[in-house]
Amino acid sequence: MEMKVEHRTGSNLALEETELPMEQEGQSAKGAAAQDLNLSPAAFTTYYTWTANGVHPSVNFANANVKANSRVFLNISEYGATAQDRFIGAARMAVYNIAPYNGGFRAWVEISWGSPLKVRFDVFVDP
Questions:
Q1: What residues contact 44, with CB distance under 8 A and at least 6 apart?
Q2: What value does the mean pLDDT take over residues 49-75?
């Protein structure tokens, strides 16, 4: 009998499946409604990678296109072999606060795991 060997990294453990989130009726940004968001034609996305664990109250993300009045949205996920290999593992990770400034933004980040993990930050900026 051959045992299957799974290659896992970080906190990539088997997950228990639960009910899926249900989309609720409401406003959606489709077609003309997206214009109501007042997005600048200069809005952009990018991502950053980092290896860390613990609480970091002021992580600096340098980006010349970010201004002090920019709208910055940031999420965090763990990744495996490449930054495109994202997954939800057993580690709890969060971004609490984001403060843009001319030339970048700072964020309060927490990665609850006993050793450094490879994390990816996906960013949407409306300058």
A1: 65, 124, 125, 127
A2: 96
